[in-house]
Amino acid sequence: MKKIISFLALAVAIFLAGCGDSTTTQKDSITKIKERGFIRIGVFSDKPPFGFVDSNGKNQGYDIYLAKRIAKDLLGDENKIKFELVEAASRVEFLVADKVDVILANFTVTPERKEIVDFALPYMKVALGVVSPSGDVVSDISQLKDKKLIVNKGTTADAYFTKNHPEIKLIKFDQNTETFAALLDGRGAALAHDNTLLFAWVKENQGFNIGIQTLGDQDYIAPAVNKGNKVLLDWINNEIIKLEEENFFHKAYDETLKNIYSDDIKPEAVVVEGSKI
Length: 277
Description:
alpha/beta, D-Maltodextrin-Binding Protein, domain 2, 5-stranded mixed sheet, 39% helix, transport, Bact_solute-bind_prot3
C-alpha cells in the first residue's frame, strides 16, 4: 500500500509540474540561446531572393538579412547563427521538434498555422500569383479547369487551391527547384506561388508571364517561434518595432531585392516596416 501511495504522489507531482506556468517553462529560452552561443534559425535554401545558398555555400537573401540582425542584437555577432535548411512543409515540424528557435523561411501567417506556432509581427507582404508560359498565358482561374497546376507542398498556394478549387489537379513538390523545373519541363499548365517570388523568377526566365498577379487575400510573412515561447516572441516583436527607427526593412529591400525587382516593383508593395500594415 505504501508503494502505491508513493507512486500516486509521484504521479501527481509530475502532473502538477507539467501544469505549471508556461512562462516559467519558457522564460529561459533566451538565456539558453545565449548559453549555447548561437541561435538556430530555419531558412530556405532554394527561394531566391528571400532565402538561398549562393555559389560559395553562404546563406543569402531578404530573410537572411533579418536573421543576421537578430543574431547581432541578441548575441552581439551576426555570425552566431546556425542556419537550418527547411522546406515549406517542414517548417512547423522543425519548430515543434525544437530543431530551431525561430523560423525565417518566408512563412506566411495563416489561422491554421497560428494554432500550432506563434507568429511575431510581420515584416513583409505577400499574395498568391500564377505564372505560365507566354504562349499560353493563364489569366483566369477558370482556364485551369481539368489542367495541371504546379505547387509546393505545405504552402498557402497548396492550401488555397485544395480548399477553393478541387476541380484543378495539383502536382506537388517539396522543393522550389523541383517545382520550377516541372514548369520549365511543361509538366503543368501553370505554377502558383508567392507573387513576390514570381516577380523575381520571371525576370530571369524569359518565355513566362505572371498572368494572375494577385490571388486570394493580402497576406503577411512573419517570424515564427514555438507555441508558448512568449519570452522569445516578445523579444522579436520589440526588435521589429525598434528596427523601424532606422528604416531597416527598406534597407534590406535595397540590399537583397532592388536589383532583381528594379523599378517594376515598389518597395511598399513588399516591405512592412515596424509591423505597420
